[in-house]
C-alpha cells in the first residue's frame, strides 16, 4: 500500500521510541523507502543501529555525518523526495520547535524544508500535554496542515494513567496509509482472480498450452489486495513469485481450473477471469511417453506408426466463464472476462461479452504475452469502450479495477 513512497520518520527523545521500531518495520513491509532521523535524546532510548537495520538506510543523527557524504545537503535532498514525514514520538520540545520555526536539529531542519505531508504522534506527560503553550503550538500546526494522531489515554512512563501515551503503531500506520497510501475503495470486497495458462497433457511429458505468463492476472490480484480487497488467486502454470499475503491456489489443467473456480465462486463478489484457459484438450492422455515410432490408441496403449504423421484428436474443454455466468442468477456478482484475438479484436470481444453474459471484458492482443506492459480496451456491458494507452500491467490492473467501480 506504500510501494515506492519515501517516508522520513523522525524520532525524538521519549520512552515511546521503542514503538517506533515497529512503525518503521511495518512501513517497510508495506513497500515504503524509509529514512530515520533521530535527535540526540532519542539515541538514549533506541540505538541508531536498530533503525538502520530495520530501515535498510543510513540513520541521520547529525546533518554533517560522514555516513551521509553521498547525500549532498541531506536535509534538502531527503525532504525534497519525501512523500510523508512522521514524527513519532513527538515531544513537547520538537512540537514547539517546529511550531516556532526553530531548526537546530536534524528533525526540525528536515521538517522545515519539506513540502510533503506531516504526521505528528505526540508522546509526553499528561501535564505537559495540557500545558497551554503545547496546546497553542498544536493548534498552530494543525492550522498549517500538520496531521496529528493521538495522544491516547493509558499508562505513562511516570506511572500515571492519563492522556499523553503515543498512539499504537497500527494507528500511526493507518493514518499514514490514509494520507499517502493506495485508496482503500475495495475494502470488504471479495475478489476471485484467475491467472496463467492451462496445460492439457498428451502424455506424462508433453502438453498443449499457450504463451500466457500470468503477469496480468497477478497484477490484478496485487492491485485488488492493495486497495483493500480480500483476494483469492487461482494460478495456472506461472513462473512468478506469490504476491505478498496471497497464497495462490495452483492448478494445471482447464478441468482443475474449473473445479477451483466453482469451489470458490460462491464466496466471491467479483470474479476476474484473467487466465488463458485452453479451448481444447487431447481426447486421450497416453499413460506412457509416446515414442517417435509409436502412437497412442484409444485405450492408452501404443501402436507402431506406419507413417510420418501423428494424428492427435482434440475435444473441447468446459467453457469456465459460460459455466459460472449461468450460475449468476439473481446473485449480485460482477463477472469480468478477457479476450485475446489476432483479428477483429473489438468485434469478437463484444460478441464474447454478450454471449457469456459478462459485466465487463478486457480486450488485448498477442503483444501482451510475457510483457510487463499491456495495451487494452475495456468494454462494459452497455457497450461503452475505453481504450487505454500502453501501460505497465500494474497500472493497467488499477485502471481495470477503476472501471469495475464505475459499473
Provide the fold topology.
Blueprint: E1 6-11, H1 17-29, E2 33-38, H2 48-55, H3 74-81, E3 84-90, H4 92-100, H5 106-113, E4 117-122, H6 126-130, H7 132-143, E5 147-148, E6 152-155, E7 161-165, H8 169-180, E8 190-196, E9 200-201, E10 207-208, H9 215-226, E11 230-236, E12 249-251, H10 254-265, E13 270-273, E14 280-282, E15 294-296, E16 302-304, E17 314-316, H11 320-325, E18 334-340, H12 345-355, E19 360-364, E20 373-374, E21 377-380, E22 385-387, E23 391-392, H13 393-405
Parallel strand pairs: 1-2, 1-3, 3-4, 4-5, 8-11, 8-13, 11-12, 13-18, 18-19
Antiparallel strand pairs: 6-7, 9-10, 14-17, 15-16, 19-21, 20-23, 21-22
Question: Can you describe what's shown?
Answer:
The chain is elongated. The protein has helices at 17-29, 48-55, 74-81, 92-100, 106-113, 126-130, 132-143, 169-180, 215-226, 254-265, 320-325, 345-355, 393-405, and strands at 6-11, 33-38, 84-90, 117-122, 147-148, 152-155, 161-165, 190-196, 200-201, 207-208, 230-236, 249-251, 270-273, 280-282, 294-296, 302-304, 314-316, 334-340, 360-364, 373-374, 377-380, 385-387, 391-392. Helices cover 32% and strands 24% of the residues. The longest helix is centred in the first third of the chain and has 13 residues, at 17-29. The chain has an 8-stranded mixed sheet with strand order 12-11-8-13-18-19-21-22, sandwiched between helices. Helix 1 (17-29) packs parallel to helix 2 (48-55) and helix 4 packs across helix 7 (132-143). It has 407 residues and is an alpha/beta fold. The mean pLDDT is 87. A hairpin with a 5-residue loop joins strand 15 (294-296) and strand 16 (302-304).
